[in-house]
Amino acid sequence: MKGTADDRPSRPAPAQLFSPGADAIYRLVLMTAAACLVALPVLGAGIVRSNYVTGVGVAPSQPVPFSHKHHSGELGIDCRYCHTGVEKTASAGIPPTHTCMTCHSQIWTGSDMLKPVRESYEQDKPLVWRRLNKLPGYVYFNHSVHVTKGVGCSTCHGDVTSMQMTYRANAFEMSFCLDCHRAPEKYLRTPAEVWNMEWAPPSDQATLGPQLVARYHVRGGERLTECGICHR
Amino acid sequence: MALRDAEPAIRPGETLRSIGERVGEIALVHPSGKRWWIAFAGAGLLVGLFALTLGYLLYEGVGIWGNNNAVVWALDIASYDWWIGVACGSLLVSGILLLLEAEWRGAVNRIAETVALLATAAAGLYPIIHLGRPWFFYWNLPYPNTFDLWPQFRSPLLWDAIDIVSFLVVAVSLWYIGLLPDIAALRDRAHAEATRQAEEVAPTRTKARLRAQTYGVLASGWRGSAAHWQIWGQAYRIVALLGVLLVVSVQTGASVMLAGSVMPGWHGTLMPVSFLIHAVLSGVGVTAAILVLVRGVYRLDAVITGRHLDALARLLLCLGCASAYCYAAEIFDTLLAGDAAGRAVLLRRMAGGHALAFWVAVLGLVLPPQLFWSARLRRSPPALAAAGILVAAGAYADHVMILVVTLTQDFLPSSRLPYGVDIWGIATFVGSLGLFLALVLLFIRYLPSVSITQVRRLVPPEESRQALPPGGGRAGAPSPDGAPLWGVAAAFGSEAELAAALQALTPSRGRIRLDGYGPVPMPRTLRALGLEGRSILPYALAGSLAGGAGFYGLCLYATAYDYVFLIGGRPRFSWPSFVVPSVSFAMLTGCLAVHAALLWLNRLPRLNHPAFNIPDFLRATDDRFFLAAELQGDGAEVLRIERRLTALPVGGGRPVALARIPR
Fold first, then answer.
1. The whole model's pTM is what?
2. Contacts of A5 in chain B (CB under 8 A)
3. Could you confirm whether the keyword Glycoprotein appears in this record (chain A) (predicted)?
4. Do A14 and B613 lie within an 8 Å CB cutoff?
5. Per-residue model confidence as pLDDT tens digits over B263-287
6. What structural domains does chain B harbor?
7. A7 in contact with B, Cβ within 8 Å
């Protein structure tokens, strides 16, 4: 200080509290915080939808390495041969060991791979399969009404006939159900096509769909999106 | 009115420096530390109780409150309504005092704003923890979800969620913006102390420096420039206005939530008004109690004077009378024009199983304020604190009465199950009280509990007695050690002198950038700098309108187009129900826009700045005013500026000190 007339002696300027670099760090922290505010929810939403959480495309190991591709795709066994309840009951049903043994008591009877099946049959103890498609307890889903009203297997379960080991094809989140419940005409098939695992909407789906909706007496929109349709 | 020519709102003889010392000392030196620790330990125990209760609640479910019957809203929602009422009330008082430019507000504003913020913090937990599955609380907010659903925008429950988020943002903003220059004052005091300790090589010097830097980061590089003060004042007032509007939206929204049901006793047309009045009454009560506490413990009667107590007491009296009117009108209206169910509710309130709540409410809200017809009691701190606590208790009882009495007996005889106040409900509330008190104690421990800035505005300007000898200014090299120069700085004892000096320099300033720094807002300096026209109102307006319109658009898109969910016969385009959350959201985005403008227009944060190199600049947040002339080219103009300044008359712009500032 060159000159002062104050009663208190003038202090020399103390060193600055912060170095020039502190500003860059402070602004970086502020901007990072702001970015995190946006990025963290986006990241969270991404993780929740990822296959890691939903399990889509992940084939878990099963007591027997059963191949849908071989049995259903290559050998042509109908879905209903094993999943017998699909047209009549809420649950499609997991086949009992007896169903396996209808064939495997005659073919591949000595196969090591099928040992658990034979043991299950001998001991009268069911095979414990790892379940793939789960719904919460408050969702009341019925296979029979979907299958008989033109919703094909592959719409929900994907092309099972191409799966060597079976995996979950869709995350059964509410939005997945609502996509169809809000616009059933985009998904409905003729009865003959329900079991077609390679079904894709035909070119005339735009005209066929509404006709099918009428033929099956499906009331889309206002009726199918009522809460009580799935939750009771 | 007597209030207007009452004694000054500050003890005579206080100066800019003495106010900063008196208030800053509490945060930095902290007298009466032992009593603080005892109080904090007590509050900490209650916080522990809160944690215990919440743990048990999460484990066992909301049934522990005893209201898993038709009385779905009991102490949980009463506590929430009460806390948010206290928050709304204190925010409203603070905001209105600020908008009306009540000159004495400095001693009250800060505590009112703090009560608003901390009560919101205590309130904010309740809407989450009273849910059956608290971890899904975000389901009430509009976000892109895997259900493919939208929340119900026509429901007051959604309005409430938006309200509390907005209210939290506005309360934090009002509190922090008001605090900003005061934190800078603390930073500079702490910095001076840290420098002293560093020179003495004191053992605590690292801690002292860390403390100064903590305040420094919080102050975001506030330098008290005239331009800073201008934008700051505008930001503070705009956020206060947004807060006042939001308070009305929140409190009426809370009463509409009740009116939206079919329950008897919840449809009085006066209810939004009485909600607001009781909120303000409880807010003023809690603010007054804490003000008296802080004044007594830290002997702040120099800045929190009898006049402040008097003003708060008068406010309580007015609101107490308004509350009496609300009760009388409701009773009169029900008896005169109410239906049988309404009359039955009134009777049950007065004489039913929960009649205690009614009588505590009426006696607590209406009677204690009547004390203040006496001028002697209006100035008695114990009377003010006691009345404040009593009206707060009355407001709580009022919320319990409104909720519980109606819910214990609705139109379905089968659901008339008894409800008794449960120990866990009380424990939860006491725990939230502990959280509030612990935060209040932390606040008065580390931050100025009285606004240094606002109180300083009451100090009459004083002329400095000394000045540099005329004809100062030294020829030769601009900087002694050859370092590049940032500019020339001059120190003044008052704003008037600073403004006079700036006016003298302005005509010939050329490319030199002039600025003034000081510890209080400086309108005259601003005029001298020619910056008066700047306004952040357009930013705030644009932010609010964009947010409000955006939210309204979202409601319309979701409800009328994307997710048509017809409920209760309401039309697809039910526009009135979207107004409330849109207004609340507009307040939030307006607030964020104000923050952005405050930082951007002031070029903050700037922790390191050449102005901090000015000798004695720490006193720019204390009792000194500085002029800085930032040189653009070579240092040739240095001499001219120095000569011009030292040639000014004493008291008319002659500085008390001059210095050349390195870059």
1. 0.89
2. 466-469, 656-657
3. no
4. no
5. 888 888 888 999 999 999 999 999 9
6. 16-456 (1.20.1630.10)
7. yes
